[in-house]
Amino acid sequence: MMLIERMTFVARYGKGDALLDSLREFNRLFGARLGSPGRVATDRTGRMFRIVWDIDHADLAAWAASTATEREIFGTPEFAEWFAKMEPLVESGDRELFEAVDL
Fold this sequence. Notes:
By secondary structure, this protein is an alpha+beta fold. It has 3 helices and 4 strands. It has a single domain (3-99), classed as Alpha-Beta Plaits, CATH 3.30.70.100. 43% of the residues lie in helices and 31% in strands. Strands 2-3-1-4 form a 4-stranded antiparallel beta sheet.
């Protein structure tokens, strides 16, 4: 069973490129600890600039391990500094977890 973690960010008006740069900075700062950066796509249509970030996990245990690492990162001063710059760029966001199925 493969799981796809999808994080969707809607940028504040005029802040899409800055948000994308912020996510690149996140990957530079913390990506080595989290593993594969996954796939990032931008949607410049719709109500606002959206960024969709998909990360594949082999199974539920792999996803749980990844979220445990995230919680460790979230407690660091480096994350707090990064988040303080990123948060004002975001209008809204969602996190979803999909199970990949064969057709």
